Amino acid sequence: SDKSYVKRIDFGGVFLVSSFLASLVLGLSSGGNIVPWLHPLPIGALSLAIFLFSAFVIWELRASQPIIPVRLLLNPTVLASCLASVFCSAIALTSIFYVPLYLQARGDSATNAGLKILPASVGTCLGGLVPGYLMKKTGKYVGLVVSSILLLVTGTGIFAFQNESTPAWMTCLAFFIVGLGYNAVFSITQVACVAAVGHAQQAVVTSTTYLARSLGGTIGITLASVLYQSSLDLSLQARFGHQPNAAEEIQRI
After folding, report:
1. Which domain holds residue 12?
2. Which residues contact 97 (CB under 8 A, 6 or more apart)?
3. Are 48 and 88 found together in one domain?
4. Does 55 share its domain with 105?
5. Which of 31, 47, 97, 134 has the most CB atoms in a 10 Å sphere around its CB?
6. How many whole angstroms separate alpha carbon 150 and alpha carbon 222?
7. Any transmembrane segments, and where (predicted)?
8. Residues 120, 2 share a domain
9. What is the pLDDT of residue 174?
């Protein structure tokens, strides 16, 4: 019946993981930005995030229909695939979020910065098609996922060495490579996870890999924001700290 299906939904797990993410983002985004790190707000939010994550793990171990079967992570293939999804999502989405800001700070308009991101969409499409063809032809995926991760790292490495004289085509190429490696990793790890578990667990492991991707993007962008704000404050203090009213102006930024 409909009621029996509703009862099987892991509302407790959904609440705990959502609360964990909200607390983590609040703690990381407020510390050093809105209030000092030793303020009760970031300390309390991060402490609550640790508690909620622990409670989530315990809950998932006991739930009859968990949203993330923790025991599935004991499978080396599933664990490696989820970790790859978390870290690659953090790297790719942080790049796609912050590089356009850098381009605008360098003098590009919002339109030009957006146009330079377009190759990432092309790379993402190819990242979903090409790995599937190669896996079908070779029957292997370990080498493919390693190559895809290296592609992603190469693309972000190009971003790291950009300066005022970097040509537009190199930025577009970097976005293309990031998009290609980003989606290739997820396509391959998705297939690897499905192949590593039984038929009854395939739907669950699919949702687990998507959740890992979302977690990586959320946590990655939040941590990048913390590092960005901290480095910006230090740079502004070093360059303009001797100016009158510098502290107030830097705090406003």
Report:
1. 1-67
2. 221, 224
3. no
4. no
5. 31
6. 23
7. 12-35, 41-61, 73-97, 117-134, 141-161, 173-198, 210-228
8. no
9. 93
**C-alpha–C-alpha distance, residues 39 and 54, integer Å:** 23
| Residues in a beta bridge with 35 | 31
CB 99 within 8 A of CB 157: no
Instruction: Please tell me the predicted confidence (pLDDT) of residue 136.
Output: 83
Alpha-carbon distance values, 240 to 35, 61, 120, 229 (Å): 21, 53, 37, 16
pLDDT on residue 2: 52
pLDDT of res. 68: 80
Number of structural domains the chain divides into: 2
Beta bridge partners of 33: none
What per-residue confidence (pLDDT) applies to 10? 77
pTM confidence score:
0.81
Angle between helices 76-105 and 202-240 (to 10 degrees): 40
Q: Looking at residue 180, which CATH number applies to its domain?
A: 1.20.1250.20
Tokens of 203: 């739907």
Q: Which of the listed residues 10, 33, 67 is the one where a domain comes to its end? A: 67
One domain for residues 46 and 101: no
Cβ burial 154-182 (10 Å sphere, 16+ → b, else e)? ebbebbeebeeeeeeeebbebbbbbbbbb
Residues 97 and 224: beta-carbon distance below 8 Å = yes
Q: How far apart are CA 233 and CA 251, in angstroms?
A: 8
* Rounded distance between C-alpha atoms, residue 99 and residue 119, angstroms: 14
pLDDT at position 249: 66
Torsion angles phi and psi, residue 34, rounded to 5: -85, -45
